[in-house]
Amino acid sequence: MKVLTARQAWDMLEKKHGTASENDAQPVLVDVRTPPEWMHVGLPDADAMTAPLVCVTWQPDLQREFLEALVEAVPDQQTPLLFLCRSGVRSHHAALLAENAGYADVSNIVDGFEDQHGPGKGWRSSGLPSAYMPLSGS
């Protein structure tokens, strides 16, 4: 498993299709936080990225369900996966699980979405694009 900062992950997610070699698969950002976190704290802005965003909650007691949802969302196990949570802990566990399930290229965004590791660390504190998930029916 690779370890990336939020800024390094953003640089990978923003590689324009066609600038990398044809053998380079487009990475997928996997946000493993919970729906309340996505709605109230925010999530990476999918409209600002060239790479896909997949939101699949990881919880210790629901690992099988997590893997099933991940395989459904990203069936090609050669696809680079970049895992994100609030602080880098849940995403670490989710990345390990994906790696053990056969995904060949997994990375953990170690500083997470929020600035849990100091000022300027994390997705949001780095000034990377984020958005709020709209509430149902709005």
Automatic annotation (TrEMBL):
Stored Gene3D superfamilies: Rhodanese-like domain (3.40.250.10)
Pfam families named in the record: Rhodanese
InterPro entries linked to this entry: Rhodanese-like_dom, Rhodanese-like_dom_sf
Origin superkingdom: Bacteria
Protein name: Sulfurtransferase
Domain Rhodanese: 23-132
Organism annotation: Gluconobacter albidus
